[in-house]
Amino acid sequence: METGARALLRCLTEEGVEVIFGYPGGAVLPLYDALYDADIRHILVRHEQAAAHAADGYARVTGRVGVCLATSGPGGTNLVTGLATALMDSVPVVAITGQVARPLLGTDAFQEADMTGVTRAVTKHNALVDDPARLPEMVREAFRVARSGRPGPVLLDIPKDVLLAECGGAGPRPRPRRADRPWWRAEPDAAQVEAAAAAIVRARRPLILAGGGVIQAGAHEALRELAELTGIPVASTLMGLGAMPGTHPLHIGLIGMHGMFAVNRAASQADLIIGLGLRFDDRVTGKVSNFAPRAQIVHLDIDPAEIGKLVPAHYPVPGDLARTLPALLEAVRRRLAREGAASQEGAARYAEWWAGIRRWERQQGWTARTPMELGGRGGQPLRPQAVIQALYRATGGEAVVCTDVGQHQMWTALLYPFHSPRQLVTSGGLGTMGFGLPAALGAQVALPEREVWLVTGDGSFQMNIQEMATAVAYDLPVRVLILNNRSLGMVRQWQELFHQARYSAVDVDAQPDYVKLAEAYGWTGFHVETAAELADALAAARAAAGPVLLNVAVAPQQNVFPMVPAGASLAETMLEAPPVPAGARRRDGEEEGT
């Protein structure tokens, strides 16, 4: 007979789990005692929130389920932000929390919290394991739910006495139920696929929008083949970056609130939008009632609840993109063959459409491929946009890049062309500051031979700065590039543009000396203010054996453009800020317009 703790670890091994990110406490001590003899690697983070984010980062770069572990009460509640982050971005994570012993449930015992109640809104599924005999079955179910269909986080809350109790052996695997054979594993509906293919072949101003679902499904090759077969331009959501190589001539960039001007204009002028694995959320559509007003919508997604939820779908194709997108590709191929239309003819068919896109690109004045002035000479501060381009050149575009949330995140999305899927790790739906460092550690654990960079801001980085110790403890050579503008840059940008430059609570004052801080944690640190210092620091960081931090002082007044104001349509994308009203105060205290 084995205890619940040992049965749990056996089930994790059977599910292919190799690493757990966690933090111990009283309610999970039986599990940590069993871990002492287990082959599963445990990464001791410095805060439970970091455990959830690290498991998330691990899952994003591998496509496998990430696992995190926390004790009862505050240990479990500290996971909530990480679980919400994973849920919004459809990331498979299994969280295991300890709970007070069953006789104490509901008594307000020490470190008791109703974790199934607390996490109901931030998990795909959760459960209290109140029967030791059911523990193996519930662990298997947790992993099945986390990875199947639209992935997401699952939480198992396990009382301490269940971990100590005899579990009753392995037991039989549960018989498959109807829910174990969901409709999305069936072949896609042929009529729906044919209708969508016919619409694609008819269109004269089509646009493909690639979302994170393309990456989750491993359907990126089918996406590229569809684009190359037809000559249709491809745009990406933030979560879809890397699904189409960023340097591919058919990829025109990011869509949405900070999307490329040409992409947003193309969406507004298209006669057909081919949405692949995206939710059409507000950051993609702008004012949803004005989104793509001239277009019909083809929508492929694994979650039927998302199809037509915000944007009406004229050609819905529900199902796993691993099946639906190849089926759509072949249907389009057959139709083009019947019509004798080669891909070259397709490109000619869209010549006018592409000419308009190139015109809008020239109107913006730059693309990710356009070298920008770096600055950093004669007292001139470095431009953050050009710093991202310098990182891209230094890494050859091959690094795994993690971000926090803010201006630096948008500059990375716009100016670092991602060559492959799972190369960008960022919090899209929830927009979680503090996500970046622990997510980068999770990515580095998963991919020890890959170059992993975190691009962050001076606001975000300090939210989970304690995880610098974790990097040293486990010899994780992450590289951190802080774009330090000494402010909460995106908040400052919104206050400048939409609150008459009334700057309130945006200055990040009393900053540490990041070089000394890095040294205190056992990192290598560089302070960068000039172009020469940046080039040297990037080279040194790439050559270093351990973790490295680059604190890069950048121009504080730089804003992220293009930008769609809140409540505006994509057709109203701004390329620059409007004039600051007379009498408004700049951050230096001087009045504008005088």
Key structural traits:
single chain; 594 residues; alpha/beta; Rossmann fold; 3 domains; 37% helix; globular
Can you give a write-up of this model?
This protein has 594 residues and is α/β, with parallel strands linked by helices. It folds into three domains: 4-181, Rossmann fold (3-Layer(aba) Sandwich), CATH 3.40.50; 186-364, Rossmann fold (3-Layer(aba) Sandwich), CATH 3.40.50; 384-560, Rossmann fold (3-Layer(aba) Sandwich), CATH 3.40.50. It is 37% helix and 15% strand. It is built from 24 helices and 18 strands. The strands form three sheets. The protein has a six-stranded parallel sheet with strand order 2-1-3-4-6-5, with helices on both faces. It has a six-stranded parallel sheet with strand order 9-8-7-10-11-12, sandwiched between helices. The chain has a six-stranded parallel sheet with strand order 14-13-15-16-18-17, with helices on both faces. Helix 7 links the parallel strand 5 (125-128) and strand 6. Helix 1 (4-14) packs parallel to helix 7, helix 3 (48-62) packs parallel to helix 5 and helix 17 packs across helix 18. The model is unreliable at 177-181 and 586-594 (pLDDT under 50).
Short account of what is shown:
This protein has 594 residues and is an alpha/beta fold.
Task: Describe the secondary-structure layout.
Layout: H1 4-14, E1 19-22, H2 29-35, E2 41-44, H3 48-62, E3 66-70, H4 74-77, H5 80-88, E4 93-99, H6 115-118, E5 125-128, H7 135-147, E6 153-159, H8 160-164, H9 190-202, E7 206-210, H10 212-216, H11 220-230, E8 234-236, E9 251-254, H12 261-269, E10 272-276, H13 282-285, E11 296-301, E12 315-318, H14 321-338, H15 343-349, H16 351-364, H17 384-395, E13 400-403, H18 407-415, E14 424-425, H19 436-446, E15 452-457, H20 458-461, H21 468-473, E16 479-484, H22 489-498, H23 514-521, E17 524-528, H24 531-543, E18 548-553
Parallel strand pairs: 1-2, 1-3, 3-4, 4-6, 5-6, 7-8, 7-10, 8-9, 10-11, 11-12, 13-14, 13-15, 15-16, 16-18, 17-18
